[in-house]
Design brief:
Helix content is 31%, strand content 20%. With 230 residues, it is an alpha+beta fold. Strands 1, 2, 3, 4, 5 and 6 form a 6-stranded antiparallel sheet that branches. 35% of the residues are buried.
């Protein structure tokens, strides 16, 4: 793991420029998981085969995601799943690239926007009444959606020092404990320091990732509640 990764400095740049986003992802992975290595991404041939099968070209941002880290499931698929290139499919006017872990939702890119190098993304809930299902706006750019994916899947990684807090999470005062990050992900707030990464989801639960067991215990003391693993 790296020892000098200032997420508060790096994240704003990552959300404004695609090249900075991929550098952020690489350094974030090295700090919180393991460094990216050759072979962590899919081959160009895998992507071209998917494009031939689908009869369309993938946006540059999606191609770059697959080439950089498409095989790193610890960064893409601990909870929800980044589809492999041969699993990409079109549904109701959108290219589906990610699915919720229990099939409750899918994320996609509208076919009309595939010509954009970094298009916006959409989400569709799986409803009992199929006539009510619609694609709804998610992130304004695929780049931002991919940064959020890597951050979210990291706090949900079962192999690290992670924990979850539900009861009373809406009453926690994280603002006075950890600096808040720029918004990444709809209905999410993020807080972090060098050794702690916290996602507050929709105001009612926290997912936390800490770099050491000691740090995790300190977090539980600082944020009282019924921590799942505590």
């Amino acid at each position: 793991m790296t020892e000098t990764f200032d997420i508060h400095t790096r994240l704003p740049a990552a959300l404004s420029h695609r090249g900075e986003a991929w550098r952020f992802v690489a350094d974030f992975a090295a700090h919180w998981q393991q460094p990216l290595r050759p072979g962590d991404g899919f081959a160009v041939a895998d992507i071209e085969a998917a494009e031939r099968r689908l009869g369309l070209d993938l946006p540059a941002a999606l191609r770059e995601t697959y080439l950089l880290l498409g095989r790193r499931t610890d960064l893409t698929s601990n909870h929800d799943t980044l589809l492999e290139p041969d699993e990409l499919h079109v549904f109701d006017g959108a290219l589906v690239y990610r699915t919720e872990n229990q099939g409750a939702a899918s994320w996609g890119i509208l076919l009309a926007e595939l010509g954009d190098g970094d298009p916006g993304t959409v989400v569709r809930a799986d409803l009992a009444d199929k006539s009510q299902e619609r694609w709804e706006a998610w992130e304004s750019s695929l780049m931002t959606a991919c940064v959020e994916m890597v951050m979210s899947e990291t706090v949900l990684f079962s192999g690290g020092f992670t924990d979850f807090l539900e009861e009373g999470a809406e009453e926690t005062q994280l603002d006075g404990l950890f600096p808040e990050l720029p918004r990444v992900g709809r209905d999410m707030r993020w807080f972090a320091d060098a050794d702690v990464l916290i996602r507050e989801l929709d105001g009612f639960c926290l997912h936390a990732r800490v770099r050491t067991e000691e740090g995790l215990e300190q977090l539980r003391e600082a944020v009282p509640g019924d921590w799942l693993e505590g």
